[in-house]
Amino acid sequence: MFQIVRKQEMARGTIIRFDISAPKIAKKVKAGQFVIIRVNETGERIPLTVADKDSFAGTITLIFQVVGKTTALMRSLNEGDMIRDVVGPLGKTAETEKIGTVIMVGGGTGVAILHHVAKAFKEAGNYVIGIIGAQNKEMLILENEMNHICDELVVTTDDGSYGKQGFVTDPLKKYLEERYDIKLVYAIGPIIMMKNVVKLTKLFDVKTMVSLNPIMIDGTGMCGGCRVKVNNKTQFCCVDGPDFDGFEVDFDELINRNMLYIKEEKDSLLFSIR
Amino acid sequence: MLDHDVKYLKFKTYLNTYCPHCHNSFNVEKKEEKSIDFKAKYKGEEIDLRLSPYLDVFEVETSKSIDKGDSVDDLICPKCHKSLINKNLNCGECGSEVGEVLISAASRLIPFFICTRYGCEWHGLTKRDERHIKLKIPRQEMPEQDQKLRVHNYQEVPYGYTTELALLEAGRCLQCKNPQCVEGCPVNIDIPAFIALIAEERFDDAAKKIKERNVLPAICGRVCPQESQCESKCILGHKDDPVAIGRLERYVADYERKMELVEAPVITKDTGKKIAVVGSGPAGLTVASDMRQLGYGVTVFEALHETGGVLTYGIPEFRLPKSIVQFEINYLKEMGCRIEMNHVIGNVLTIDELLEHFDSVFIGVGAGLPTFMGLEGESLGNLFSANEYLTRMNLMKAYKFPEYDTPMPKANNVVVVGGGNVAMDCARTALRTGSDVTIVYRRSRHELPAREEEVHHAEEEGIKFKLLTNPVRYIGTDHNKVKGVECIKMQLGEPDDSGRRRPVPIEGSNFTVDCDMAIVAIGTGPNPILFSSTPDLKRNKWGYIEVNPQTMETSKDKVYAGGDIVTGSATVIEAMGAGRIAANAMHKKLSGKPKKPKKEPKKAVKVK
Questions:
Q1: By CB neighbour count within 10 A (0-12 exposed, 13-18 middle, 19+ buried), where does B434 fall?
Q2: How far is A42 from chain B (nearest CA, A)?
């Protein structure tokens, strides 16, 4: 059992931040790694990337958007409540050595993970440019934290209610056109965003890492449910990833695979409401 | 009034009795007197003889009084007038001949013997006769759930032996002086000894006898491939069917559990040393139990949220009820083993970190990485690895969706690729969700690697087999879900290295099997998580850990390994055998002296 020590609602309650007491994981987890959680006995196992950690206090931070049954259930939990299982850290660590200038692109809740990776890049001594996006002003998260980490930060919103109006790819294109010293683009967010980022960086031939979020069950390489096609080879996201070279990922297949359980998700949510 | 019964045959349980010649029924149920009527000859005169079962014994009535100590000359079937007397058999005590009739028990006819000496007690038979009778008892089948009903539920299929059936089956064992079955068992259970204890109705002692060598009898009795292990060596098997050792093992373990006779031993020894076990599957549980009994502190690390490894996530409820697995694990806990769930060793703690805290480490993580064939369309929706399908259904209890949150994969037509036990498990699970299931296997039925019983059950339940067939690609719909499997016909060629005949595709014989779900059950490989943090662990060309087969020691000091992570996918009992070897070696190294060998079966001593 793992206790929730802090709960914070962001973006009008659609995005939640939990600090969970898990000392062993907090000691080990590195940027880019994830945990699998199961809220209660009848719950499903869902993967959540660790957004931050405090190894001194023994807590890990999870930030998630309420999208389905399990995340809705998690929103109903409060400080002091218990989560039944937290397994981790899982997946490979993001490679964050010093390489020069990097652009960190994040959209939606992806910013939560991005900020952990960005921090690691900054600590390694890189010049970090951040581009974060959201649907509107309310949905934007962790702007202050990102501002603190990044040497330059651009904020975009789809409706223009805050920052620049447009998608994250617009400022990214500008940077790629203007600066020639960009060594790496790191993108986390909705699959369609990552796909568009990769489409753009391919034109400029800048190495791009993406962090994938396929459907998972056990998260330990056992089920193969999270398989993605990378460089025309089947890879398991939970043990070979979650970070992959964006140029090699078959995004269309990933989109198809992530759509597989939409109906069941709805059924399950309806069942719990009834 | 007679107060003995034949040692191995209990009268009260049998419903019908027949003449061995004409099968005329001496039915005790139909007649209200509840007795069996015979014609008998006594001093040249035909008389009536009536045997009435009274509790466990008989009462004999005759129409003419018989002198004390005398026996009837002949016992005749009233219908066909043939003699029931068996000239070859004698009552062990008084030496008079015995009559023979057939009794139906569990829908099989078995011979039954009646001492013909009136007034003489109902004696046991001589050794020679006993053997003669034993050879006539057929192998007893286990009562099973009806095949039409069971495809709609997830309850266990065989009910297990009743006491009577177990006694009958135990009665078949010849108690060989040089038992081959013991050699066939990877953990060398003293099989004749425990069967003899069953025959004496000392079921709890029989359970203890098994537990000397095997800590998980209820599980092994259900999932071991006995037909290729102990039962393949049984002498009876040469001419007839072998003794059903697995079913007896299961009966004894179930008896002990249901009667609540299981008592975890109180561990008083304390060596002050601690060991870590990685993985709570069969290999790990064996090491944990053995080492705990020797007085070591044991901590078991499990990556998932349930213990038991493949016993929990892999084998379905209808083949191995999860309550049994949990029972065995509770036994370990009561013995004082610590079990840490949700620990992915290699990530949260590395082997090196474990070695800082523990004196020795055993790796029994199994082979859990699913393999695919690399065919076109393998990333389509509704195409699962066997592991994913079984994990969803067993571990996450998807069959209880939406009560449990993990959705149940459901389809009308399911194709399962592969012919092993896992393929059978997937097929039979899918059948229970209401699907039509076809198994596609590239060799013929003879080469199916699954347990014979599983194949038999699968066929009985209506699973179709497309043998000598191999998939070449998966066809998808516009919505990227599977809609068919293109297959090619195969023929068997020359035997390969493993001795099995290699299947060769027949060019141009492609055809399509329509389906809306496919499950790939073609085996597994080693999981890379542990090795990425432990590069100094030597592995073979398939990626499994290399060990010294005598001690299960790895290339890393103080680290042992066993089970599927050493051998690749194998059986539960082989993993337990490896665990036992590792525990012995570990103890030897940690204590500086070899572990006392467990009691060997007593050998007959000749008296001069």
A1: exposed
A2: 5
Q: What are phi and psi of B253, to 5 degrees?
A: -65, -40
Joined tokens for residue B602: 């007593």
Question: Mean pLDDT over residues B372-399, rounded?
Answer: 86
Per CATH, the homologous superfamily of domain B372-522 is FAD/NAD(P)-binding domain (3.50.50.60)
Could you give phi then psi for residue A175, rounded to 5 degrees? -60, -45
Tell me the average pLDDT across A44-48. Answer: 86
* Closest CA relative to residue A153, chosen from A100, A98, A111: A111
The three-class DSSP label of residue B280 is: coil
Mean pLDDT of the B404-416 span: 86
In this structure, what are the phi and psi dihedrals at residue B35, rounded to the nearest 5 degrees?
A: -150, 170
Q: Could you give the CA distance from residue A224 to residue A203 in angstroms, rounded to a whole number?
A: 33
Q: What is the mean pLDDT of chain B?
A: 81
Tell me if chain A has a CB within 8 Å of the CB of B433: no
Indicate which of A82, A222, A249, A259 best probes the interface with B, i.e. most B CBs within 10 Å of its own CB: A222
Q: How many CB atoms lie within 10 A of CB B559?
A: 24
Q: How close, in Å, is residue B462 to chain A by CA atoms?
A: 27
CATH of domain B153-258: 1.10.1060.10
CB B249, CB B210: distance < 8 Å? yes
Let me know: does B247 contact B195? Beta carbons within 8 Å.
no
Question: Among A82-91, B395-404, B582-591, where is mean pLDDT lowest?
Answer: B395-404
- The answer to whether B3 and B57 have CB atoms below 8 angstroms apart is yes
For residue A36, the cross-strand partners are A47, A87
B269 neighbors B294 (Cβ within 8 angstroms): yes
Structure tokens belonging to residue B198 = 């069953």
| Both structure tokens of B99 | 């009559």
Run of H or E residues at B253: helix B245-258
**Which domains are seen in chain A, by residue range?**
2-90 (2.40.30.10), 101-258 (3.40.50.80)
Q: Which helix (H) or strand (E) holds B283?
A: helix B282-293
Distance CA A261, CA A252 (A): 16
At B94-109, the pLDDT tens digits run: 666 766 666 554 444 5
Cβ contact (<8 Å) for A70 and B405? Answer: yes
The 3-state DSSP class for residue B6 equals coil
- Phi/psi for B285 (5° steps) reads -65, -35
Residue among B348, B370, B407 whose CB faces A224 most closely: B370
CB within 8 A of B128, min separation 6: which ones? none
Over the stretch A116-151, which tens digit does the pLDDT of each residue have?
A: 889 888 888 888 998 998 888 888 888 888 888 888
Distances (CA, A) of B90 to B85, B98, B126, B128: 10, 6, 7, 9
B527 and A45 within 8 Å at the Cβ level: the answer is: no
* E strands present in B227-368: 274-278, 297-301, 338-340, 360-363
Spelled out in words, what is the top-level CATH class assigned to the domain B274-367+525-591? alpha beta
**CB atoms near residue B535 (< 10 Å):** 8
What per-residue confidence (pLDDT) applies to B3?
31
Instruction: Kindly compute the dihedral angle of the four CA atoms of residues A208, A209, A214, A217, in this order, to the nearest 10 degrees.
Output: 170
ipTM of this complex: 0.86
Domain-wise residue ranges, chain B: 8-136, 153-258, 274-367+525-591, 372-522
Q: Decide if A217 and B388 are in contact by the 8 Å CB cutoff.
A: yes
Where does the pLDDT of residue B119 fall: very low under 50, low under 70, confident under 90, or very high at 90 and above?
A: very low
Query: What is the full DSSP assignment across B373-437?
Result: ---BTTTSBTEEEHHHHHIIIIIS-GGGTTTSSSPPP--SEEEEE--SHHHHHHHHHHHHTT-EE
User: How many CA atoms does the CB half-sphere of B166 hold within 13 Å?
Assistant: 26
One-letter identity of residue A10: M
| Token reading at A130 | 């951040």
